Amino acid sequence: MSKNNNVSVIGLGYVGLPLALLAAEKGYSVTGIDTNKQRVSAINAGKDPIGDSYVANKIKENPFTATTNYESIAGSKVVLICVPTPVKDVYKPDLSYLKSAVESVAEKMTKDTLIVVESTINPGVCDEVVVPLLESKSDLKINKDFFLSHCPERINPGDPKWSVDNIPRVVGASSHDGLMKAVDFYESIIEAPVKPMSSLKEAEAVKIVENSFRDINIAFVNELAMSFTKLGIDVKNVIDGAATKPFAFMPHYPSIGVGGHCIPVDPYYLIEYARGHGFDHEFLSLARSINSKMPDFTIDRLTEALSEVGLSLKGAKIAVLGLSYKANVADDRESPSYKLIKILGSKDVKVATYDPYFPESSTTPNLQEAIKDVDAIVLATNHDQFKNLPNEKTNAKVFIDGKNAFEKEDFSKRDIVYRGIGRGYL
Ligand SMILES: NC(=O)c1ccc[n+]([C@@H]2O[C@H](COP(=O)([O-])OP(=O)(O)OC[C@H]3O[C@@H](n4cnc5c(N)ncnc54)[C@H](O)[C@@H]3O)[C@@H](O)[C@H]2O)c1
After folding, report:
1. Which residue has the least CA distance to atom 18 on ligand 1?
2. pTM as predicted
3. Which residues, judged by CB distance below 6 Å to any ligand atom, belong to the binding site of ligand 1?
């Protein structure tokens, strides 16, 4: 695709910001659009608003302009939509951000524009929601005047190996011509294969299937963790053993729960859509239910360990370390830490929290302060800053390793009861 084509990227978060930086680096003239004024100002000042090393490296050079208005759409031949698609109420897909962005695009877009939805959506959203909105809010017709494509984002924030420029992509589109344009565009910016899919619906399904696959596998090992605790078997050792099989096994590990904007959210998009078409996704619902139980399971382990040292949960002082949903990222969306903290609060526990990525949400200013004078420590996120925990000064009598980041032996020289998740230490 000619680099003379202007590109607009809508939604400058974990997905849109690295993508806008990449397209600009590859020679496109890029405009970034976001409704968040502070974010737009930070980007234009060359600052990384999301705490991501890929973004921090590239943004200093100010390679594109960010704005809160949609004026650039009229002059853009490629429009990439990367707005949030969360769930609301009791896990109902919330397409309000996507609909709003699509309406704003429709009001400004001109002929021959390729619109690409990168946000995660269930099968059917492009055909049933996006196309009708684009047509009704403009006087343009799909495949005659403009093209729609879906290229689900697969970025994995904090991953040193896989980033926006080297992760393979799948692309679906409204027509053959639209598909060719979309494949051409992605091949011009990424150093990885771009696989054309036969429809928008197939491309939409790919992303939900990938993330549901992960949720289901994690649910399986979380269930094993709960079972093996009763059976006195160390689940981590078993998984590591099974992983020596060079084919047909892929290790996943148990923990205090599943967080982030994708894995605990995306399965609901398929569950709800299929339910509306008369199919009940029992397997996906069960995985969600098992993974949601893990904070309660963690608290049961904590209660048992406290009782072993003559303490009760009620009235105890507990340090919860880590608010991010995963290690070394400044993202706490759907983090199981918050569920854990909420349950502890409801049980009359005094909770001290600390996360170096969320100083404002932490109740203590540093790690030492958080763990100094507590009965137990719960490691909820295995940030690098917590690696020296076995050697830190603390009065805690119990250590709950919610990420199985340590071994029992790491604490052997200390007067502390260590519990992992499913490590078989009854
Ligand atoms: N975070 C991930 O790791 C990841 C990975 C793959 C896919 N996804 C998917 O990508 C999409 C975006 O996720 P994210 O993590 O980047 O979200 P995010 O919250 O980090 O960023 C979204 C941005 O969109 C902006 N926004 C919201 N409504 C807007 C509108 N109408 N117009 C312009 N800007 C608007 C917000 O202000 C925000 O800055 C979601 O569908 C998500 O499921 C996320």
Report:
1. 13
2. 0.94
3. 10-16, 33-36, 39, 82-85, 97, 100-101, 119-120, 153-155, 157, 261-262
